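We append the chain.
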Amino acid sequence: KARQRLREFDIGDRFSRLPLPRAAVLLPLMVRGGRLHLLLTVRSLQLRRSPGEVCFPGGKREDTDTDDIDTALREAKEEVGLQPEKVEVICRLMPGIDKMNNLVTPVVGFIEDTFQVTPNPDEVSEVFVVPLEYFVKPLNYKTFSYKTSSGYSTRIHCFIYHDQEHRKSFKIWGLTAHFAVFLALVIFGERPTFEVDYDLDNLFSSSENYFTNLYASIRERKKSNL
């Protein structure tokens, strides 16, 4: 059922011609105890950008990458030792734009729950999994308004997830939380316990409008700077 829902939201190469630097992340789904879970990583404290923050495996596109799927799979292999052939890629969801104005495409794929993580310590300090439903029915959640550098106002989701296995809490927010929430909305098709920036009765078209407005605000700022 999840595969079918996700394929309905596949954007393919729809935004591949936009003149922004490209990046991609892998949203690795697994079934554990009969429930869908999402694998996340914690960035190494040695990294210059966003050290210690929770994110998905991923990064900037390299010249050798043929597309966003290639980028996401290559980065997942480098960061957590996930072999590309062990990922059942389902779709590419609506992209986002990060703080550096990179166009970030989320690639969704299923992995086995028996996958043995081997984190690259230069990039990843920890790996953990969260039940996907936590991103529509969280126990610890807050939101705040954020105005991008281009002046576009948006809503930032922030989840605190207490992981029993690690016996610690992880803060999941920003673009990572944005992608996780959208993924959960697509798969479960139900209203979350908090407000979102979408018309849930027209999720695909309203998510496209959200992205288009965000991209337009960045283009306007570039014009004004010129």
